[in-house]
UniProtKB/TrEMBL annotation:
It is found in: Cell membrane. It holds the Pfam family ABC1. CDD domains: UbiB (cd13972). It is a multi-pass membrane protein. Residues 93-343 form the ABC1 atypical kinase-like domain. This is Probable protein kinase UbiB. Belongs to the ABC1 family. UbiB subfamily. Belongs to the protein kinase superfamily. ADCK protein kinase family. Pathway: Cofactor biosynthesis; ubiquinone biosynthesis [regulation].
Amino acid sequence: MTSSELKRLYQITAVKLRYGLDDFLPDDPRVKLPKMMRKSLFWMKNEYADQPLGVRLRLALQELGPVWIKFGQMMSTRRDLFPPHIADQLAMLQDQVAPFDGKLAKQQMEQSLGGPLETWFDNFDETPLASASIAQVHTATLRSEGREVVLKVIRPDILPVIQADIKLMYRMARIVARAWPEARRLRPVEVIREYERTLLDELNLMREAANGIQLRRNFEGSEMLYVPEVYSDLSSERLLVMERIYGIQVSDIDALVANGTDLKVLSENAVTVFFTQVFRDSFFHADMHPGNIFVSRENPHNPQWIALDCGIVGTLNREDKRYLAENLLAFFNRDYRKVAELHVDSGWVPKDTNIDDFEFAIRTVCEPIFEKPLAEILFGHVLLNLFNTARRFHMEVQPQLVLLQKTLLYVEGLGRQLYPQLDLWDTAKPFLEDWMSRQVGPQAVIEGVKTRAPFWAEKLPELPELLYDSLRQGNALNQRIDTLYDNFMENRRHQGQARFYFGIGATLVVCSAILFSNQIETYPALSAVTGVTFWLLGWRACRK
């Protein structure tokens, strides 16, 4: 380790001890020696012993800084790996990070643009509008159009910090993997690898720009969701320029009420927008925490959502969408046999899973849930219980479903915060049933024909030539088959001859040996020569 790594390791260890995170270590003989060594080097006591373990972990990550805050946010999405009392606390982590100097931010922007900021922008505000773990945002006016924009810039020198902390995370993960038997299920090294990939992707703001453009195009003209315009010609890997929006942050309930916002419609629109993204577009905003979601002040009787920060998006393929929709419909129709069969058919659990046992496990977990009125059932937690039950049957972690689960929990949480009486299932079920009917019913056939019609129209003029080529190739193939058959039969005839000659030759050689043993003088030699001759004939037949 370098001196800087040792210094950082000391800081991390000190924070860990002050928050009593030693409690995460298993009661295992293999960790007793490291604990004793730690106590001999660090005499720090737990200063937050009165706080639950999840709270202490959240506070420690906040103190360790941006990389660890982001790591905690990522871990909060892995409810398949962490118990609720940990995941719930980690989900509360927000990017409340101290901003860096506005002059330095301006230098970073000019470096990305390749010239003075005044060439493209007026009224640049060096005081940041918002500051997060990876980037911070400033406001300005676009000189060419006079429109207000925001400029999001990556924090300077963040990459070396990320790389150093990631390296230490890998070291700690490998130690945990060796010392803790439960680590085989938690897979700490794989968790760090997934986090590293996610974090490095977020350092490229062009990915966020592309996601924002796609999401905006999907909801062009929609009254339910607005996505700010991205100025891609001014954006780069370290700078994102986009339209500035004015709205009410979704967590500010008092402001929404003061604006006359219809909270019931707003909540139902959130559900519709989410399922539209998932099932219509297969492209959904996967970071819908309150800091990224605003509500337009206009038209409060039919309020419009505004989505920011498209750095993390999720996608589902056609099969995943179909199986997910069928699972949800079967689940709320209490057809647990269908749920179990769908999990096996989709490959989410092993093919040799006992369907009867799996069905019984699902029923045991879910029937108590349905004893409540439907409006009181937490839809996101239903999905979570379903995945947790499947995990006991060795369900493989599906990254796209983990993102979906996290986003659904966000959406339902927002909806219930805005309108506690929200019946998410009442809103979602018609959408799912309509989508399923369009996938497997007559409408699906019509849609399939419409989708393939341009391809068929393009190939139609080539049909006679393609038909002629197919017939010619068929004739050529038949001729080749006939030739191969004739060759096969000829080879078979020669092999028959060879076996016949080898058989006669072997018989004559054996006879020669018998005659010779009986001391008959002339015939043994003649029989042996004749036998060898037949062998030569058999060898010649094999060579043909």
